[in-house]
Write a structure and sequence with these properties.
The complex is a heterodimer of chains A (113) and B (115). In chain A, strands 2, 4, 5, 6, 9, 10 and 11 form a 7-stranded mixed beta sheet that branches. By secondary structure, chain A is an all-beta fold. In chain B, 0% of the residues lie in helices and 51% in strands. Chain B has no helices and 12 strands. In chain B, a hairpin with a 4-residue loop joins strand 8 and strand 9. Classes of the chains: A mainly beta (113), B mainly beta (115). The interface between A and B is medium-sized, with 27 and 25 residues.
Chain lengths: 113, 115
C-alpha cells in the first residue's frame, strides 16, 4: 500500500539558512499535518491543511510557513534556521471523513549546525 | 485542554512475557484515541485506534487496547512480547470537535525486551 512520502530524508543546514521540506500524502487523503519531534521528545503539532486550506495551527514559529498545493502535496518552509530547529519533522495524512486516523511518513531529519 | 499522560518512561520485559503500557488522557468528552509505535529514527506506525463502540479494540502485531471512560484510560496490552516489539510507544488523543483532529501525544514509553 502507498505510504506518505517525505523528502529529503536527511538535511543539514547552517544557522540562518533556509530549508524546504516536502510531503506527498497517501493518494485520496485530503488532510495533511506537520509535526516536529525534538530529540527524546514526543511529536508536537505544527500545522495542518484540509483541501489546500490551512485548517489548524499549533506551535509553529513565525519563521516557518507551509502550504498545500493543488496536487495535495505540502511543503514546510523554514527560514532563519536556529540550532533549536534540529529535529525530526513528520508529515501525516488522513483520509476523508468520517475516518480520523493519521498515517505518518518516515520523517525528515533536519540538523542545523 | 487536552493532555495525555504515559506514566512509564521506560519498561523492560522478558520475551514471551505479557505487556501493559499505561495511558491516561484528559478531555471533556470522549476523545479519539490512538497508539503509535516508533522504532529508532523511524516514523510512527499506527497500532490501533478507538473512536466509539466496543471498548476493547484490536490492532496490528497482536496488540489490543481497552478504553475505560471511568478511569480516563486507554492502556495497550500484548499477551506475549517478541524481541521485535522493542520500540517507543506513543499514546495520542485527537479531538472529535474542531474538525481537523490534530493529535496530542504523550511523552512516550520506551520498551526494552530481554531475550
Amino acid at each position: 500500500a502507498a505510504g506518505v512520502i517525505q523528502s529529503p530524508r536527511h538535511l543539514i543546514k547552517e544557522k540562518r539558512e533556509t530549508a524546504t521540506l516536502k510531503c506527498y500524502p497517501i493518494p485520496r487523503h485530503d488532510t495533511v499535518y506537520w509535526y516536529q519531534q525534538g530529540p527524546g521528545q514526543d511529536p508536537q503539532f505544527l500545522i495542518s491543511f484540509y483541501e489546500k486550506m490551512q485548517s489548524d495551527k499549533g506551535s509553529i514559529p513565525d519563521r516557518f510557513s507551509a502550504q498545500q498545493f493543488s496536487d495535495y502535496h505540502s511543503e514546510l518552509n523554514m527560514s532563519s534556521l536556529e540550532l533549536g530547529d534540529s529535529a525530526l519533522y513528520f508529515c501525516a495524512s488522513s483520509p476523508p471523513r468520517p475516518t480520523y486516523e493519521q498515517y505518518f511518513g518516515p520523517g525528515t531529519r533536519l540538523t542545523v549546525t | 485542554a487536552q493532555s495525555v499522560t504515559q506514566p512509564d518512561i521506560h519498561i523492560t520485559v522478558s520475551e514471551g512475557a505479557s505487556l501493559e503500557l499505561r495511558c491516561n488522557y484528559s478531555y471533556g468528552a470522549t476523545p479519539y484515541l490512538f497508539w503509535y509505535v516508533q522504532s529508532p529514527g523511524q516514523g510512527l506506525q499506527l497500532l490501533l485506534k478507538y473512536f466509539s463502540g466496543d471498548t476493547l479494540v484490536q490492532g496490528i502485531k497482536g496488540f489490543e487496547a481497552e478504553f475505560k471512560r471511568s478511569q480516563s484510560s486507554f492502556n495497550l496490552r500484548k499477551p506475549s512480547v517478541h524481541w521485535s516489539d522493542a520500540a517507543e510507544y506513543f499514546c495520542a488523543v485527537g479531538s472529535p470537535s474542531g474538525g481537523y483532529n490534530k493529535l496530542i501525544f504523550g511523552a512516550g514509553t520506551r520498551l526494552a525486551v530481554h531475550p
